[in-house]
Design a protein that fits this description.
The protein is of the alpha/beta class. The protein has a domain of about 180 residues. The protein is built from 16 helices and eight strands. α4 runs parallel beside α16.
């Protein structure tokens, strides 16, 4: 399925996880959300970076709304059927999975890859955000290794705070390590640029992926939405209600829902 001329892969999650953990070839995994896809419409450089991924996997629920709109016969019909599409998202997820493909949530994928790495003794590398002005994040980063080791005692990993001024030093350490998986938590576009750049030099890494704030949930820096919220695909609402920077989150949600869906219908 193409959204803004970017092909989102059709995948079964279990088969997908099994395939990428064979580590037989290099794979880059990006999980574009509506905000990212919108950015590609007016940023050609960013779009070219996105297209370099081996897999572009569907995560956010609004992508499944977009899939239904794209499949409708006309713009007018897609507008009329919007309530039905929302109903499918909340109550007929299995129908959507069967018709399109599995939703691949980056938080779940991160956890599953950590389990595989821990069980199979596969070393990983983690690139974290460099935001010295965020005091809470800095405190979390100081205890990150200890917190992750407490959750995964058998996991072997390198952890780097990706300061651009130390980029060459970090890349050199990665390519001389035994790591096979690289997780990036950097911001949009920076994470894609860093992954593509490191991929060119680090032949030891076989799996590269962005995972946003997944590790914040794993080490309990942030509390993830309860399972019931995730079951009904309203984890985004839980983060809005419980997280900081509500005005900024509202702006992002407005773009991710209303602007995104408007552009999908407009470009249909």
């Amino acid at each position: 399925m193409e959204i803004f001329w970017i092909n989102i892969n059709k995948l079964n999650y279990k088969k997908f996880l099994s395939e990428i953990t064979k580590f037989e070839e290099k794979n880059i995994i990006f999980t574009p959300n509506p905000e990212i896809l919108l950015k590609t419409t007016d940023n050609k450089k960013f779009k070219s970076l996105i297209k370099k991924a081996s897999y572009l996997t569907p995560d956010w629920i609004w992508l499944f709304l977009a899939f239904q709109i794209i499949d409708s016969n006309s713009k007018l019909l897609s507008i009329i059927l919007l309530p039905y599409y929302f109903f499918n998202i909340i109550f007929r997820k299995n129908y959507l999975y069967k018709k399109y493909w599995d939703r691949i949530c980056w938080s779940d994928l991160t956890k599953d890859l950590l389990d595989v790495s821990s069980n199979q003794k596969i070393k990983i590398t983690i690139l974290d955000l460099y935001i010295p002005e965020d005091k809470n994040k800095v405190i979390s980063q100081k205890t990150f290794k200890k917190d992750l080791e407490a959750k995964y005692s058998n996991l072997e990993f390198d952890y780097f705070i990706y300061n651009p001024d130390k980029k060459d030093e970090i890349i050199n350490k990665i390519k001389t390590s035994k790591s096979k998986i690289l997780f990036s938590t950097l911001w949009m576009q920076k994470q894609e640029e860093s992954i593509i750049e490191i991929m060119k030099e680090c032949n030891n890494i076989k799996l590269w992926l962005w995972i946003w704030s997944s590790f914040d949930y794993i080490i309990w820096f942030q509390k993830r939405a309860p399972k019931l919220w995730r079951t009904f695909w309203i984890e985004w609402l839980y983060r809005l209600l419980t997280g900081p920077q509500k005005i900024n989150r509202l702006k992002r949600l407005y773009n991710a829902i209303f602007v995104f869906i408007f552009q999908i219908i407009k470009n249909k």
